[in-house]
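We modelled the chain as a single entity of 182 amino acids. Its sequence is:
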Amino acid sequence: MDPADPVEHVPPPGTLLHALASPPAPASSPSSSSSPPLPSSSAVAAAAAEAAEFPAAKRRALQDLVLFEERLRQNMLRLNRSRRRWEVVLAALSAAFAYFAYSTLWAARDDPNLINSVLRPFNMEFNKSSRGEITFSRAVPAHFQESYEGFRERLLRGWSALPTPSARPPAAAERRPRPRID
């Protein structure tokens, strides 16, 4: 903000900043019947003692500190509201993405044409045979296709050699003791 700019920011009413920045209300005449009662002499004495306790420069510094604290509090509230809004937007986008991804995959489960439309830019095609395997178009070099076929066969043979989940664990005599970690 330009210090030469005569227009000052007016804080919203009902805040501490508004109370500190707004000028005090003009004193009403004592003859008015709706005016509040005059302060007692002890209240006047307390206000005079407080004014004497804090010189004008110190009062201004303390007022600036209170204004600074209130601005920080308002900024924190504003940032928290903004963060909550963005969290809601992120949650909504995540839910929408999850829904559409799930529905697309669910539809693709029974629709090989949808799967093939995704694989086509990679020169691949999904054949929904008994094994359901990927085949390559003629644009893919033959040596790559042969390497992939060999790797797939070795991998599938390796998976069939793995123990099934129903296999029982070795007997206690066959187990090796675990080393102690101290």
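As a brief sanity check on the tokenised model: The chain has a mean pLDDT of 74. The longest helix spans residues 56-110.
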